[in-house]
Amino acid sequence: MKKNRLILVIAAIMFSGILMAQSTINSPYSRYGLGELRGENVSTQLKGMGGISIGMNDPTLINPSNAASYAVFDSLSIVLEAGLTANFVNLQTDQLSENSRNATLGYILLGFPITKWWKTSLGILPFSKIGYNVDIVIDMSEYEFSDIQNELQGEGGVNRLYWGNAFNIGKNLRLGINSYYIFGNGSRNSSVHFLDSLNIYGTKVETSTRGSDFIFDYGLQYDLHFGESDVLTLGVIYANKFNVNANRRYLSKTITGGFYEIVEETKDTVEYRPDEKGSFVIPPKFGFGAVYKKSDSWLIGVDFEWQKWSVYESFGVPDSLYNTMRIAIGGEYTPNHTSISTLFKRMTYRAGARYEQTYLSLRGHQINEFGISFGLTFPLKKSKTTLDLGLEVGKRGTSKDKLIQENFFSVNFGVSIQEHWFYKRKYN
Fold first, then answer.
1. What is the 3-state secondary structure (H, E, C) of 313-362?
2. Per-residue pLDDT tens over the stretch 276-299
3. Of 40, 162, 198, 332, whose CB count within 10 A is highest?
4. Which range of residues forms the domain containing residue 396?
5. What is the pLDDT of residues 332-361, one digit of tens each?
6. For residue 18, is pLDDT > 50?
7. Residue at 427 is within a domain
């Protein structure tokens, strides 16, 4: 018990430091919509299996992707999970290449029982991230005119606090609901400079949006038993459309400088809207998954998820986004979870793959994402605490037609602590 609590303290200090000093992502594709989306299947264990989650459940695993999964928590235990992610990205065009890296707090999750038939979970998760800095120079020499630079910058994102509840309906059926409070802000700036002339004013547009509201999603899982140890779990998730309240600050101005180390100077304000009220849309989604499990030995699963981002708009203006689709397959294997001889037999080994159709289509190319993942769980002796490691390699986008291909390598680290805190001592 003392050992596990010490691990918890160390982990909390480490994650707090990461949270306060995390670096921004660098993805030009995060310019659109709400940025680069982050799903609920953020757990290091789930990522190690390609992100399968809709049919997943385990007493030691917190799975916000399907709220029904909380119902399998042990009625005498509390589970705490936390994780961080480090990303290494190579951005590549048909002519240039650039490397980027960032580290960020992935999640903090807590799960525990209320009654034998009612279990609950709390936590904080990312929803989307914005981070880009792009310079586009247009050669105007054939027109005998100054070269034009378009500078695009953005940062921020949306996070979510959640409270989930799950209920056992009979022996094999579970229902759940997640209540999210989403909050965050994002800033996007666009500047136009005339590089070869100090006599032509440039233009700069600064937009900052802040939003917060409550949204919900729903989950269901059903078990089909085959023999004494084989179980097929079928899962379904659904969320309806939500309009999230938001405030926006908009400033358009004429400027000089801002390039070639020349100090930027504001000459005039074109338009200023300091507190514009509106909303942005979180579209409906649907998904289903299945997991076939051999008790305490192995499992294999598959997910399909779809979300209607074509209805997205912000402050009444559509963003020409497309519907998203995610397909994932993965599994895990534990040679002998009761073994007291070697660590390698008690470890859990994972692998998976995923394909995602993002909500972007640019210059006639659908911006898709593909990843292959691997994972390991290291159990600590005489406890149910585990250290989890996940690795993923993949790519997003294409370098065709002057687009950008992002080749990424992600390292995910997590800590999962389970303690029996809900029982009375017989002796003092």
1. EECCEECCCCCEEEEEEEEEECCCCCCCCCHHHHCEEEEEEEEEEEEEEE
2. 999 999 999 999 999 999 987 999
3. 40
4. 2-419
5. 999 987 767 688 888 999 999 999 999 999
6. no
7. no
